[in-house]
Amino acid sequence: MDVYRNLIGGDLVPAADGRTLDSVNPATGEVWARVPASGRADAEAAVAAARAAFPRWSALPALARGQALRRVARVFAEHAEELARIETTDNGRILRDTLHKDLPGMTVLWELAAGQVLDAVRGDTVILGPDTLGLTRREPYGVVVGVIPWNSPISTFSAKAAHALAAGNTVIVKPAEQASASVLRLGELLADVLPPGVLNIVGGLGEEVGEALVRHRDVAKISLTGSTETGRAITRASADALKPLTFELGGKSPNIVFADADLDAATEGVTVNSIYTGNAGQVCVAGSRILIQRPIWEEMLARIGAAAAGITLADPLDPRTTMGPIVSAGQYERVRSYLELAAKEGTDLVFGGRTGADVVPALPGGYWVEPTLYATTDNSLRVCQEEIFGPVAVALPFDTEEEALAIANDSPYGLAAGLWTRDLGRAHRFVRDLQAGNVWVNTFRQMPPGLPFGGVKDSGYGHDSVLSYTREKTAILNTRS
Q1: Does the structure show a pLDDT above 80 at 278?
Q2: Per the database record, which ranges form the Aldehyde dehydrogenase domain (predicted)?
Q3: Taking residues 139-161, what's their average pLDDT?
Q4: C-beta separation of 252 from 410 below 8 A
Q5: Residue 481 lies in a domain
Q6: What phi and psi, each to the nearest 5 degrees, are found at residue 298?
Q7: Cβ-proximal residues to 79 (8 Å cutoff; 6+ apart), any chain
Q8: What are the helix and strand counts (H, E) for the chain?
Q9: Residue 311: burial class (beta carbons within 10 Å; 0-12, 13-18, 19+)
């Protein structure tokens, strides 16, 4: 049984009251590790440590901060396989993704953040008159809290911590209680890499340590990747102190296939790279609404079914596995409830729908849901409007560009959208008119480091970048002696 600890002020410590939470391997349903069940005392200690470390860290020359971040990047590279296996065991995300996509990508992200440190100290100069200058300067906020989700802990940890640290802030990361182990292990590896208190990691329940952190008056900024419900809760909890917020929240992303598309590429793009494989649909940008132009409706449904039939559900640590389990018992029951709802709402089951031991008999205790597709003409159904966060998609037909755009935008969410067409003019029109923070044309789920990632509507606002972790100050200087 692995036991993980918090990182607070450079020290690896259990929760102040000694409480722990069980981490369950979702492929087996068995407890494999314990993590701290931190509370208010741990939040207070983490904020105090981060606040004490802030003056020295923010005063470091930018290039010195960059050197420190490069040391972090080396830790990611040197411990990639260990971290990937921990994350896969903890949340079920398949090893071929955690090891060959996530860890290499995050090594690059930390290197890129190290190279952007000078952006955080650049300002503008405006000549207002012969004896008057206007200056702007960028300054870090101070103590930043990053609240991260269970579906991709290492990646979201990096997106928040690397950019906030590059800008000169000190950081507290609160990982999701369902999957904290990989980030807490990172705390162990980084305890001696960064100065004490610059990076702190505190595990526990959101309603306990998470709420204590976001309400704390010495926390200057909060960045959340998580559900829209959590975003609303953090907004309420932080309102008294009027903290700046960055939210990357839920999605119900449309993936739109026109009749002129390369159907081989589109089939892979709406199945393998969108909703089913990798993380079993537990991705905020998952293309969970597949919009198909009527002339190719039947053909695309058959193609998607054939592609889904080739997906391998098995032990996520097996490199041959292409789709893993649902992360937890609670999320598993949530997904199952939507399967029941789809039947009640009168959708047509195209394929899938089985759960549990029927899906992977070799691992009967795991939280398994097979790739599932429903079809309907009614985009107002709850299964079309609400984020399921599992390997469950809904196909909807359309005739014209205008109808496709209307269906795509008829959603409370606006995180991402995909478009499959050979028509360049149509591609530009949809990039312009789709209500989404990220639009992919003839590809899907491409999120390279260095490009902004965020949403609109109930999918949040802002994005994690070096400049987003700074605020601008204006100064007017009269130079007459």
Answers
A1: no
A2: 16-469
A3: 97
A4: no
A5: no
A6: -65, -40
A7: 189
A8: 15, 23
A9: middle
Q: Is residue 180 part of a domain?
A: yes
> Measuring CA to CA, how many Å separate 81 from each of 149, 254, 284, 323, 478?
21, 34, 25, 19, 58
Whether 248 is catalytic is yes
Residue 224: its pLDDT value, please?
97
Give which of 191, 149, 115 is closest to 284, Cα–Cα: 149
Question: Does 123 lie in the same domain as 185?
Answer: yes
In a domain, 11, yes or no: yes
pLDDT tens readout for residues 410-422: 999 999 999 999 9
Same-domain pairing of 445 and 384: yes
Sign of CA dihedral 240, 245, 250, 252: positive
Residue of 201, 184, 179 whose CA lies nearest to 4: 184
Q: Are residues 391 and 244 in the same domain?
A: no
Is 329 found in the same domain as 233? no
Residues 242 and 262 in one domain: no
If pLDDT is split at 50, 70 and 90, which confidence band does 210 have?
Answer: very high
Range of the domain at 280: 254-449
* Number of domains forming the structure of the chain: 2
Question: Do the beta carbons of residue 204 and residue 36 sit within 8 Å?
Answer: yes
Examine the domain organization and report whether 337 and 230 are in the same domain: no
For residue 410, give Cα distances in angstroms to 378, 397, 435, 457.
Answer: 11, 14, 9, 11
pLDDT of the residue at 241: 84
Range in 85-89, 129-133, 338-342 the model is least confident about:
129-133
As given in the structure block, the two tokens for residue 457 are 């509507």
Please tell me which residue in 87, 177, 211, 248 is annotated as part of the active site.
248
Identity of the amino acid at 445: R
* Portion of the chain with pLDDT greater than 90, in percent: 96
Query: Is pLDDT at 481 greater than 80 in this prediction?
Result: no
Residue 197 counted as domain residue = yes
Beta bridge partners of residue 305, listed in sequence order:
none
Calculate the alpha carbon distances from 437 to 46, 247, 370, 388, 467 in Å: 33, 12, 29, 20, 18
H or E element: which one contains 199? strand 199-201
Shared domain check, 373 and 224: no
In a shared domain, residues 437 and 292: yes
Asked whether the whole model's pTM tops 0.85, one would answer: yes
Q: At what angle do helices 62-78 and 181-190 cross, to 10 degrees?
A: 120
* Helix axes of 103-115 and 80-91: crossing angle, nearest 10 degrees: 120
Confidence of residue 27 (pLDDT cuts 50, 70, 90): very high
CA-to-CA separations, 54 to 175, 220, 381, in angstroms, rounded: 21, 12, 49
pLDDT at 444: 96
**The CATH number of the domain where 266 resides is what?**
3.40.309.10
